[in-house]
Amino acid sequence: MKRELLSDPEKFREMLRKVVRKTWPIVAASSLAVGCGQSITILPADYESQAQVDGGGEVVPDTNRPDINPNLDFRNIPQENRLDACPVEQCGPGTSEWNKQAEGRYLRLLAPVDPRPLSFSQCVQLCKADLEKACRNGGNGEYSTYYNLAVTGCKEEYDRNQQRGLVCDYTVKRSCAVAGRRPAGMQEKDPSENPPPNNDLAETGAFFAELAYLEEAAVTAFRYLTQELEAYNAPEALLALSRQAIQEEVEHAQLMTQLADRYGATTQPVQVEPFALRPLAEIAFENAKEGCIREAYGSLMAFWQSETAEDPAVRAVMERIAHEESAHAALSFAIDAWIQPQLSEPERQQYKAYQQESYAQLQQELAEEPSPALVRWAGYPPKDVGMQLFRSLQQEVTA
Ligand SMILES: [Fe+2]
Ligand SMILES: [Fe+2]
Predict the structure, then answer these.
(1) Which of 37, 149, 220, 256 has the fewest C-beta atoms lying within 10 Å of its C-beta?
(2) Boundaries of domain holding 30
(3) Are residues 142 and 276 in the same domain?
(4) Ligand 2 center to residue 202 CA distance, Å?
(5) Does pTM surpass 0.85?
(6) Strands 164-178 and 143-158
């Protein structure tokens, strides 16, 4: 992509959408439903009841579709069809039987990132993974627990609202084995030390709290950048965009804090060193790393999240953030184009080395497999997807 096009937010966004589409052909990132100025309301509700999100577009159900099961509603799954806890009784003191068994039908929404159509074996895999998650760490820790999970039927179905979900018939058998005689007077473990069954929520909340922190830090980053651009007599157009970015980052921090709240996490206040004017070369290095590389990847990831997060509130927030972050990345390329001619030859060499190092660092960070909870609720790209997005972006930006 030509450098002058990188500084154009619309062209830059177009490129990001192209990368997302290339990485995941099913994505229909054709429009940003939540643009600037539209309101997003995030209710502090659990996602079973689904947040009300303005501007997210309305799906009109076509109840005549032959593949729709009018008896299903994946938004209101009855208690007995959920896996809030392991369906089979726990092992522990006072149990009268060594072996326990439970049978049931499990229903859950499918994420856009889940295979479509879902084969029987893929369905079984997803169902078993959820059963395992619900049942692991069962018991009180003094007993070894063994499970035997069997799936007798599994398929994807569309409910009356055209939501895609899976319907799984399972049997769970649990053997309770005593690990040893327990000494008299031993205290029971504090149950709060065990991960709760909805541990995914806490993990997702911590992720959004971290993002809220980073967005809050970005407010100060743009404040300082604006002051530096003023000090070095940058063009008014760049200054105006940088000032606008301060406001947008304030809003991003608020939105992320609301998402963290929604998942029960609290955000930490940000502490930053006071402002100090830096040499132009240093600003160029930081702008390359934080703007042209990290903000660019961040906006690409936000596009991905806005398509794949299972939580509609996350999708709506990410749509907004993707839109504005891509403008911030485009601003970074514009700043880069303004600074480059002012650098000396040795500084330019240094800049190139720094840029390569920053790409390598980000790539290394993406080599970690994210937790399934983040992939599911926050739409975080799995490792392979993240690497593919990164490579495509790097190709586009450095071509
Ligand atoms: Fe932001
Ligand atoms: Fe930003």
Answers:
(1) 37
(2) 3-46+201-398
(3) no
(4) 25
(5) no
(6) antiparallel
Using DSSP, state whether 390 is helix, strand or coil.
Answer: helix
Cα–ligand 1 centroid distance for 221 (angstroms): 11
Q: How many domains does the chain have?
A: 2
Which strands, in side-by-side order, build the sheet including 143-158? 99-109, 164-178, 143-158
Ligand 2 centre to CA of 308 (Å) is 21
* Residue pLDDT tens, the chain, 399 long: 777 788 899 999 999 988 888 876 544 333 333 334 444 545 443 433 333 333 334 445 555 666 788 899 998 999 999 998 888 776 554 444 445 678 899 999 998 888 888 888 899 999 988 887 787 654 333 233 445 678 889 999 999 888 899 999 998 876 543 332 222 332 332 334 333 335 678 778 888 888 888 888 888 889 999 999 999 999 999 999 999 999 999 999 999 999 989 888 888 777 778 888 999 999 999 899 888 998 999 999 999 999 899 888 999 999 999 999 999 999 999 999 999 999 999 999 999 998 898 888 888 888 878 888 888 889 988 888 999 999 999 999 887
In a domain, 206, yes or no: yes
Residues 206 and 173 grouped into a single domain: no
Residue 252 CA to ligand 1 center (angstroms) comes to 5
On whether residue 67 sits in a domain, the answer given is no
* Residues linked to residue 146 through DSSP beta bridges, in sequence order: 175
Q: How many Å lie between the centroid of ligand 2 and the Cα of residue 228?
A: 17
Same-domain pairing of 293 and 380: yes
What is the Å distance from ligand 2's center to 249 Cα? 6
Centroid of ligand 1 to alpha carbon of 360 (angstroms): 22
Q: What is the CA radius of gyration of the chain?
A: 25
Measured in Å, residue 214 CA sits from the centre of ligand 2 at: 9
Q: Are residues 247 and 172 in the same domain?
A: no
Ligand minimally distant from the alpha carbon of residue 331: 2
151 in the same domain as 13:
no
- The DSSP output letter for 33 is S
- Name the nearest CA neighbour of 373 among 320, 313, 309, 322: 309
Both 95 and 148 in one domain: the answer is yes
